[in-house]
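Saturday, quiet lab. Running sequence design on the structure tokens for the scaffold JK sent over.
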């Protein structure tokens, strides 16, 4: 009887805790109005596509356990969809956002409400357009605080500072894309990088709008750094200040200190910064890490970390003393980029799958499509070709008549096939001198099926076709563990022995070392259609993508929920 009473008491306490959790969870109802607004940068004003007239867009601040209902109203002239980058969207691919993958786009004059719940996630994520190059200006931070009463696994910072790194074109980004799609050549590189939408002191007509962050001596702040750029990995540093890395892609890490971080498109990195230097003004700066043999934007964006008691000049030439500039790595410093990523570790023992059910080997890289008339204005790539990209020689083509998830749910044939190859169709020296006969991929709309709760390992192998390169690969609907990486060709006999299965970093976007490989593992516990693609948007448009179809499990709690009634139609 006494044990029964004890059990009832424990159950009662658990029930109280559950109801307390429900009471603390909030519903955030917002409207995102997609509309053109005049934005002036680099001396010129453009009608840029914005959210609620803001560039960058509004920051969403929520807690683990909260729900969101974001109604996107499209008042622009382009189709659009919004992706909540890094949100797992458990059993709810309808809210994920990539156009023609989980939904048809929101047409001009129409709207769609994204409804989703934050389930056991906290940290820095972000949202952005997932329709062609609209995310050049349509993006913002998504900050998930811990549940009330749940502390960080590190000392609480005084405050948070979101740092959104972006790219700016001095023309309509959609026109830049349209030109590249017509010619088959690489798109023009950006004209500036930005920090929170502003280029900074080193660009024309920009100094007056440079972002400034006041800070008190001794204060520790958390910089939530997001690379929202379309096409470029970046180095980021703050002059004379050390950065303590505590989180990547909304997953806590074992803290370590560095003077510079490397962050790829789509990735987030949280760092703690303590104002322990002489009271002055210090530049924070970002510039390209360019691992490919290709043109890139070789400029530098800056913002200013400004001690509130920083001195000013006296006498003639009064004014503020020029900020101190940080030491940034060279644009091709792969050694520094690799050293940084190799230090990342999960903050405790990670629940990595130890047994593997699906062992996949994906080559990722560029290619060239031959033209019947190499002198055509539509064949302006190398030697009269058009640029392409692929995974396992399959160059992904978006459907148009329906989205893959809707076709899968409705049983509609003819939209996609499920014969995506688990390994390359031909084995070759992936990082060596590749025969030109292997440079042209095959176009198609192919998916790969996974059983519910299958343990999945993917080795992502870069190739030297056209050029080796760091490809930031993003998997929708999942976080995964980065269990190993290296340069050269992956060796399935010897490399797995070096895998870190204890505390590998957890991410949603991971870069392939240029001329190398990276191995990830995850449990396929989220049914639906989930996009995997390079987060360099030029490469995504060329076809560096594929789709996983994760089958339903048993019962309602292991199955995709029904689509919402207002889901857009193609």
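Result came back. Writing it out in full:
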């Amino acid at each position: 009887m006494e044990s029964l009473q004890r059990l009832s008491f424990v159950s009662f306490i658990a029930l109280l805790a559950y109801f307390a959790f429900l009471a603390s969870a909030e519903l955030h109802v917002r409207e995102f109005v997609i509309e053109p607004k005049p934005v002036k940068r680099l001396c010129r004003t453009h009608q840029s596509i914005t959210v609620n007239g803001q560039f960058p867009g509004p920051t969403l601040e929520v807690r683990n356990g909260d729900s969101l209902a974001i109604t996107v109203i499209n008042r622009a002239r382009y189709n659009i969809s919004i992706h909540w980058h890094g949100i797992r969207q458990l059993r709810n691919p309808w809210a994920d956002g990539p156009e023609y993958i989980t939904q048809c786009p929101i047409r001009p004059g129409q709207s769609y409400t994204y409804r989703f719940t934050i389930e056991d996630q906290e940290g820095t994520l972000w949202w952005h357009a997932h329709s062609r190059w609209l995310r050049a200006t349509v993006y913002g931070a998504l900050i998930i605080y811990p549940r009330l009463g749940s502390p960080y696994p590190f000392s609480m910072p005084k405050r948070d500072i979101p740092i959104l790194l972006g790219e700016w074109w001095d023309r309509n980004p959609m026109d830049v894309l349209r030109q590249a799609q017509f010619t088959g050549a690489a798109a023009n590189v950006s004209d500036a990088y930005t920090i929170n939408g502003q280029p900074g002191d080193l660009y024309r007509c920009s100094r007056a709008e440079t972002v400034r962050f006041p800070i008190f001596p001794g204060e520790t702040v958390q910089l939530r750094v997001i690379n929202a750029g379309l096409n470029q990995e970046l180095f980021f540093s703050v002059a004379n200040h050390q950065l303590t890395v505590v989180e990547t892609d909304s997953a806590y890490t074992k803290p370590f200190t560095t003077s510079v971080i490397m962050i790829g498109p789509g990735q987030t990195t949280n760092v703690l910064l303590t104002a322990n230097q002489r009271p002055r003004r210090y530049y924070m700066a970002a510039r390209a890490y360019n691992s490919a043999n290709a043109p890139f934007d070789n400029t530098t964006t800056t913002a200013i970390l400004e001690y509130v008691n920083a001195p000013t000049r006296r006498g003639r030439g009064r004014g503020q003393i020029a900020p101190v500039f940080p030491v940034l790595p060279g644009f091709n410093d792969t050694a520094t980029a690799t050293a940084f990523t190799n230090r990342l570790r999960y903050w405790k023992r990670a629940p990595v799958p130890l047994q593997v059910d699906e062992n996949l080997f994906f080559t990722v890289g560029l290619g060239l499509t031959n033209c019947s008339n190499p002198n055509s204005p539509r064949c302006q790539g190398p030697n009269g070709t058009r640029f392409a990209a692929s995974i396992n020689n399959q160059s992904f083509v978006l459907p148009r008549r329906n989205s893959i998830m809707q076709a899968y749910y409705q049983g509609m044939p003819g939209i996609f096939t499920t014969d995506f190859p688990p390994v390359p169709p031909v084995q070759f020296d992936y990082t060596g001198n590749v025969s030109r006969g292997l440079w042209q991929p095959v176009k198609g709309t192919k998916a790969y099926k996974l059983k519910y709760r299958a343990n999945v390992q993917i080795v992502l192998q870069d190739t030297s076709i056209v050029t080796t390169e760091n490809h930031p690969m993003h998997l929708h609907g999942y976080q995964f563990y980065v269990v190993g990486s290296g340069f050269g060709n992956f060796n399935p006999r010897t490399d797995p022995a070096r895998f870190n299965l204890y505390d590998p970093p957890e991410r949603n976007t991971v870069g392939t070392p240029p001329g190398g490989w990276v191995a990830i593992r995850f449990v396929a516990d989220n049914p639906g259609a989930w996009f995997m693609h390079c987060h360099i948007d030029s490469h995504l448009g060329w076809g560096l993508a594929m789709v996983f179809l994760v089958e339903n499990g048993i019962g309602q709690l292991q199955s995709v929920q029904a689509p919402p009634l207002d889901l857009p139609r193609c």
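Notes for JK: The first helix runs from residue 2 to 24. The chain has five helices and 34 strands. Ask whether to fix the surface positions before the next round.
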